[in-house]
Write a structure and sequence with these properties.
Low-confidence stretches: none
Order of helices and strands: HEHEEHEEHHHHHEEHHEEHEEH
Radius of gyration: 20 Å
Number of domains: 2
Helix content: 25-40%
CATH topology of the largest domain: inorganic pyrophosphatase (n-terminal core)
Strand content: 15-25%
Largest sheet: 6 strands, mixed
Number of strands: 11
Shape: globular
Strand order of the largest sheet: 6-7-8-9-11-10
Mean pLDDT: 95
CATH class of the largest domain: Alpha Beta
CATH superfamily of the largest domain: inorganic pyrophosphatase (n-terminal core)
Amino acid sequence: MNEFQQLIEAADSICIVGHTNPDGDCLGSTLGTKNYIKNRYPDKKVNVYLQAANEKFRFMPGFSDIIHVPSDRKYDLCIMCDCNGYDRLGDYKTLAENASVLYVADHHIPGNQKFEHGTIIPEASSACEVVFDLLDRDYITKEVAECLYLGIVHDTGVFKYTCTSPHTMEIAGFLMSKGIDFSYIIDDTFFTKTYPQQQVLGRVLMESLMVMDRRCLAGWLTCKEMKFYNVTSKDIDGIVSVMRETRGIDCAVFIYEMTNQNFKVSLRSNNYMLDVARVAAHFGGGGHKMAAGCTLQGSYHDVINNITKELALQMDAPDFISNRTDS
């Protein structure tokens, strides 16, 4: 029994938290952990605290039980998934700070904060992969498998991204053996979109610009545009991944306005020589080599200009080999 399982066994009350604006991997790792604990230790009190997530994930076991109201309650154990620092927990960081014991299960590059208990593996495909390796396979039910599979699918781009390893595929095969409807999970949460989502995707692509000598595709949405299409941040999380699929570019940049001239920036690298996590970290953000994000203030032109200036430090280096073709 590893430390993770020992801490769970010793705790009577457990809370599980993840980063703000929870995505598939955050939801999968937190709910997967909760379902595992409830199956193995039915008498333990376990709560998941997260911001409201996209309703396309409502099929996940335990989704409707997620608590969206911050709390200052003191739990015996807090498990922090898909997050490497208190600052990314938003209003739920008090739960992590108040807990008797904190355990971190993550795959982001470690930040400045150090944790006594945890497993952080930047090479892992996802937080769900990290969590899977901490669990006893004998207690992984179909409900646990659905959650973990979803998280792996979303953070690997359905097994397309370079973070996908043979071990990732071995885990996916094990989870599939539990009888999950894997095709539904992929289609309904990764590919299927509402009509407003399709409209706003089209708007971004139509208005996007090829910048940095056509090596980077940049797109944006303002608050006014999001209001016009009746979409929120939960509806646009897949846009940058579609932009990234453009042939011949090295990266995609997508920004959307959260409040007046306050933009959320999503970066996706299409070139293994380009580390977008370094760019995000320069602006106080973080992520992975191929996928990262941050927030910046200014007009959308200012934000894109600032991002591309930082990208240029890598992309204009003499030894950088671009994906760009003249065809």
